[in-house]
Write a structure and sequence with these properties.
The protein is mostly helical and about 140 residues long. The chain folds into two domains: about 1-60; about 65-125. Helices cover about 75% and strands about 0% of the residues. The protein has helices at about 5-30, 35-60, 65-95, 100-120. Helix 1 (about 5-30) packs antiparallel against helix 2 (about 35-60). The longest helix has 29 residues, at about 5-30. The radius of gyration is 18 Å and the shape is globular. The two termini are about 25 Å apart. About 15% of the residues are buried. Belongs to the GtrA family. It is a multi-pass membrane protein. Keywords: Membrane, Transmembrane, Transmembrane helix. InterPro entries: GtrA_CellWall_Glycosyl, GtrA_DPMS_TM.
Length: about 140
């Protein structure tokens, strides 16, 4: 899959995940009367799982297997992204940037960093046949 096509799919999956997050938050908080904090957490976790699954299968067409490792890397990336976003927003605000402009800038940085790390670290393409889950050295290929 080309980088451009993968990026386009990554952006679409991100938009869909945001919609899932917002929709689940509305459903949990406004319709089911779940408190705002637990509703926000549950909606975020649902969106995280949706985002992981769709990026794995649609954006990056990850090789079969390795899901546990990929999910751990994805969660690590999310945690680091949150930390960097927080530090970046607070730092930019300290320098006089409006908080919404700072957040928007950090989202842009986060999207770029996340795309690269998802493509090459979380869901890397299998380049060597011995790394493929279906590779068995005793069976001729």
């Amino acid at each position: 899959m080309t980088t451009f096509r993968s990026l386009l799919r990554f952006l679409l999956v991100g938009g869909l995940s945001y919609t899932v997050d917002l929709g689940a938050l509305y459903l949990l908080h406004s319709v089911l009367a779940v408190g705002l904090a637990p509703a926000t957490l549950l909606a975020f976790l649902l969106a995280l799982v949706v985002n992981f699954a769709l990026n794995r299968s649609v954006s990056f067409a990850a090789a079969p297997g390795r899901m546990r490792r990929q999910f751990l890397r994805y969660c690590t990336l999310c945690a680091v992204n949150y930390g960097l976003t927080l530090v970046g927003v607070l730092g930019l605000v300290e320098l006089g940037t409006h908080y919404l402009v700072a957040k928007t800038a950090m989202v842009g940085v986060g999207v770029a960093v996340n795309f690269v790390l998802c493509r090459y670290w979380v869901f890397p393409a299998v380049s060597h046949r011995s790394e493929r889950p279906d590779y068995h050295p005793s069976v001729p290929v």
